[in-house]
Structure formats: structure tokens, C-alpha cells
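Contributing: when you submit paired examples, paste them exactly as shown. First protein:
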Amino acid sequence: MDDLSTVNLLNTLEIGTEMELTIKCLGGTAKMQGKYKGGLEHHGYYKPSGGWGCSSLKGKYKEFEDERECWQFHFTEKGKRSIYMMQIGYKVLDVKVLI
């Protein structure tokens, strides 16, 4: 699933919707189940170096003009209380809504 499709899907969800995420992790990918907690926001642009994190320098420097947008949202893993900030495209590869 590409970044824009994921953002559009998350825009249609209500807070508390159960979902399954496919995420990047050490050694490949993993699946996490939990609840969408909202907070979808545009958080800058990925750094040209490909390092973790986003840069909010778009428009200030020419080298950021063609970079991918960075979107983040809140997620709580099933059975846990902690709310995680998940990055679409960098950490989150796919989102599946559970019915």
C-alpha cells in the first residue's frame, strides 16, 4: 500500500478502530494488531539521507523540494496501554482494518 492510500484510509477511520499493521523491524517485517488512536498529521518530509525521522525544512532549502512527505498517527498495540507514534512509509508498510 502506498503512502497516499494509507493516509486516505486512515482519514476515513474512527478513533478506536481495530487494525493490523505490517511494520518494518529488525530482520524483516512483522504484524501488529491494535487500535487506531487518531492524531494523523503531516510531519514534514523524509530526510534525503534516509535516516529515521522527518525534516520539517520543506521550502527553506532546495534539497528538500522533491522529498516524500512524512505522515504520522497514534496507535495502541493490543493488550498494551502505551500509545505509539507510527510513521507511514518508513515504519508502517501496510494497514488492514479488522472487522
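Second protein:
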Amino acid sequence: MPTIAEVKQAKSKTLRALIKNLNTEDKRTKLNTIKILGDTVGLGVKVDTEQKAINALEKETQDKNRRVRKAAKNALDKIKMTKRVSPNPLDMFDGGIGFSSKK
């Protein structure tokens, strides 16, 4: 069974590759990538790369193609609505109600 650090590393690597895929001119690839990001960003362990993915999706909401804009908006909405279930018990201290990682 992989450690939390290994899972974080794999998730970060995957998200970086998906963010890079958004630079394509192929609309099918871009739309599929946006959907995958929407389905995965808010799941599992939290990684810093998630914010980069969200920023990349926000940028795509300004794309000239209406389908890309709509897909990016839907992905962002899905991420916001996703209830994170993480194998990392320390994720619950990441600013939730009654919890704060700041002193």
C-alpha cells in the first residue's frame, strides 16, 4: 500500500500533466482534460498542485470556444461541490469549521 507521500507525489505529477494538456489546440483533448480535472482535483489527499489546476481552469473560462468555457465552469463548480474524503487524517485541520492550521 502506498504511503500518503507517494500518493501526493503521484497526484501532483498527474495534475501537472493535465494542466500541461490544457495548452493544446485540439478541442477534444482540452474538453476531456477539463472533465478529468473536474472529476479529480477535489478528491483524495490535498496537494499544492490543486490550486494551479484551479487557476488553469479559471483561465479556461475565458477561452474563445463556448464549449471550453462551459466545461471549465462546470469543472470548477464540481470541484467546489466535492466533499473531500482523504486518506490523510491531517487534512481535516486544513481550515475547516473549528479547525485551523494557523496560530
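If you have annotations for the second protein, write them as plain sentences, like these:
Helices lie at 4-21, 27-40, 49-60, 66-81.
The two ends are 34 Å apart (CA to CA).
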